[in-house]
Structures are given as structure tokens and as C-alpha cells.
Amino acid sequence: METQNASFRTSLYSSFHSIQIPQNHLFSILSKPDSPKWVSLKTHCSFSSAALLANSKTQSQNINKKLECKGASDIEDDNPKPKIRRKNLAIFVSGGGSNFRSIHEATLNGSVHGDVVVLVTNKQDCGGAEYARDSRIPVIVFPKKKDEQKSFSAEDLVNTLRSFKVDFILLAGYLKLIPVELVRAYPKSILNIHPSLLPAFGGKGFYGMNVHKAVIASGARYSGPTIHYVDEEYDTGRILAQRVVPVLANDTAEELAAWVLHEEHILYADVAAALCEERIVWREDGVPLIRAKENPNDYL
Ligand code: GRF
Q1: What's the distance, Cα to Cα, between the start and end of the chain in Å?
Q2: Where is the signal peptide (predicted)?
Q3: Each residue of 124-161: pLDDT tens digit?
């Protein structure tokens, strides 16, 4: 059954490579090639999800006028490109840490222009923490157990991350609320990955397998990971990137979780690459977009 599902899902994926979306719509799956109301979108090999902005030249130019780019002083579109500083990443985990591994591997193989300089976990024996120790990445336990909490406060965490010169914080299955001190110390610099297409199936209680069970029970035909900025609530920050996974009629929560996790690894490494290359731009209304690597006038 899984093999059949796999090939069906793969054929659905391949149909996403030439997505067409209605003008002015950010999200669409179905393509209607013959309709004049639909515009073709070029997709980029690693971002084949529907979370794409229409890329007609006029639209891109209009968008360009209104975008603010974090670290923009370091970037120019004209060649030769200025050298971009390698970024320092902190990763937060509570579990197995497969996303952490995928990002770490991407830093080692050169596809992410940054380094994982510290791992933060609330569970010092979790798989992610073990992997960090094996890879000689410093591990910080936060929050500490109740009786030790006074010994390492949220301010201490901020100061420690600053001492590692952390540029970006990537939450990858970290199950504790991020202290407000940290959110304020790192504005527009903390990301989280969630295993559903937010804003659906997010918020309190939606974690782990609960998410996938709820997706299947709802009858939703598509799911997939979302990467979003972190604010002071659960799963409410601005969406930065998504990938779409079809939900098949006979999917179990475990099967869907495995497909979504597979997409998470690709998406988080791609987003980490964009962050480290300073390709995030902020639309006037506060929505973050990713500037395509191949063409700075396209957004993902
Ligand atoms: C992922 O499904 C992620 O979406 C969620 O927690 C899980 C972490 O998995 N936030 P792993 O520890 O990276 O394997």
C-alpha cells in the first residue's frame, strides 16, 4: 500500500512543477492551463510548493519598490555580488532532531552559508542533543528543571546566545514557549517549523501526531510543513515558506507524518540557505518573502 501511495504521491508532486495560479492569489494548487485568467509561475527546483507569488515582471517590479530587506546594506543586485558574512545559527530541539541534522549537514556541505554554533534543548538526553554532542556542537539546557531555574534565566540565555554571536534561531521541534525576552532580543530572526499548512491545524494542542490525525480527520486533501517567524504566541507569526503534501484517501497519520517530515528537511535547509544569504525581504504589509536565488526579481 505504501509503495502505491508513494508512486501516486510522487506523480502528484511532479504535476506541481508547472504551477499555474489565478492572478493576485498567493495559494493555488489546481491548474487551468487554458484559462486567460490564470498566469504561469516558474517554480524553483527546491521550492515547488504552491506558496509562490505571481512572478510576472510587472508584479515583481512593483513588489520590489515596496520591500524592505533585513541586512539590505550588504546586498546589491548588480554583479559582482558583495561577499556575504557567514551566519551563526542556534537550533532549538526537544526530540529526535532530524531537522537539526538536515540543517547541520547543509552547513557542512556548503549549501547553507552558515554554521550551527549552539544547540538549545529542554531535554538534555534527546536525540538532537546527542547528535550535537557527537558533532562537538555546544549544548545548552533551557529551561532548566524547576529547582535549578534561578541559576539560568531567560536573560542568561539571551546573553549566552549573544556570546556565541548568534544571528538566527531556528526552532526544530522545540516544545517550550520561547521566552519573551528572547523574542524581543532577536526581532525577525527566530523561525519555527510546524508540520501543517498554517494557519490550519496550529496553536495549542497541535503538535506531533495530533496534527496529522486532525488533518486526516478533517478531510483536508493537502497538508505540508510551514516555516514561520516566531512571536509571543504559539504558531501565529508571519508565514515565510510552505511545501504541499497531498493527503491520500488511505493515509494513516504515521504515513502522512513521514511524508511531511521528508518535506520539512528540504524546506528548512532551503530557508536556512535563504536566511544566511540575506534573501528574506519584507513586504509593506509585513509579510516576509524569499528572494529567489536564480532571479532577484522572483519571490518564493
Ligand atoms: C517536526 O515535525 C516539526 O514540524 C515539529 O516537530 C517535529 C520535529 O522533528 N515542530 P525532528 O525532531 O526534527 O525530527
Answers
A1: 34
A2: none
A3: 999 999 999 999 999 999 998 877 767 899 999 999 99
| Closest residue CA from atom 12 of ligand 1 | 97
pLDDT at 44: 32
Residue 215 main-chain phi, psi, to 5 deg: -60, -50
Cβ atoms of residues 18 and 48 within 8 Å: no
Q: Which among 94, 174, 215, 261 is the best mutation to test ligand 1's pocket, defined by most ligand atoms within 8 Å of the CB?
A: 261
The tens digit of pLDDT for each residue in 226-269 reads 999 998 776 679 999 999 999 999 999 999 999 999 999 999 99
Q: Minimal CA–CA distance to 179: which of 148, 147, 149?
A: 149
Please give the helix or strand (H or E) that residue 289 lies within, else none.
strand 288-290
Distance (Å) from CA 290 to ligand 1 centroid: 22
Cβ pair 75, 69 in contact under 8 A: yes
Catalytic site includes residue 194: yes
- CB-neighbour burial class of residue 83 (10 A; exposed 0-12, middle 13-18, buried 19+): exposed
Integer Cα distance of 173 and 192 in angstroms: 8
Cβ atoms within 10 Å of 60's Cβ, excluding its own:
18
Q: Name residues contacting ligand 1 (CB within 6 A).
A: 93, 95-100, 128, 172-173, 193-195, 225, 261, 264
Task: Give the integer Cα–Cα distance in Å for 62 and 75.
Answer: 19
Alpha carbon separation from 139 to 70, 99, 116 (Å, rounded): 28, 16, 11
Q: Are 142 and 113 in contact (CB under 8 A)?
A: no
